[in-house]
Amino acid sequence: MTVDAERPDLVVGDDGLARPRWASSDTLLREYYDTEWGMPVRDEHGLFERLSLEAFQSGLSWATVLRKRPAFREVFAGFDPEAVARFDDTDVARLLTDARIIRNRAKVLATVQNAGATLRLREDGGLAELVWSFQPDTTPEPRTLADVPSSSAESRALAKELKRRDFTFVGPTTVFALMEAVGIVDTHLLGSHRRGTSGVWA
């Protein structure tokens, strides 16, 4: 690997492709960056899963969540919101004893609550329609990692609306991370091989 002299936050891999440092030092993160992060997700199931995982990531590294994602999918019924909304105290107790996931009671309860909120949104267009309605007119153009914002006017507004709709663990930073992950904004560094590949931003 070599560092791009003009853009020191980019690392050129053995394959000749430039990636940010965070996606260059770990095989799992590199695969996630190359194939998934920032690609459009426009369905209820996909957005509910990513919203849930972003909530679990709060205060932790994304690598931790990504390594545990298969277990999360298993114990949360594939992140089917209809199934998760039916979880009761017994299910919560089961989850809190499962060492394969992040055992945070508040985050587990938030996931169950958010599943119910997701179902109720179906009466008003659905989760995907709501989330994507907050797509901004422009997207950041960061040259360095320091240029990447942690929130935006749109993420603050979406967080407020989600809370109004009875979602929880959806602060502006968590919501902005969701918007990055599902392609609503493109915060790939300029010069990265993934910049502009989502098709959302020309």
From TrEMBL:
InterPro entries: Adenine_glyco, DNA-3mA_glycosylase, DNA_glycosylase. Pfam families: Adenine_glyco. It comes from the Bacteria. This is DNA-3-methyladenine glycosylase I. It comes from Flavimobilis rhizosphaerae.
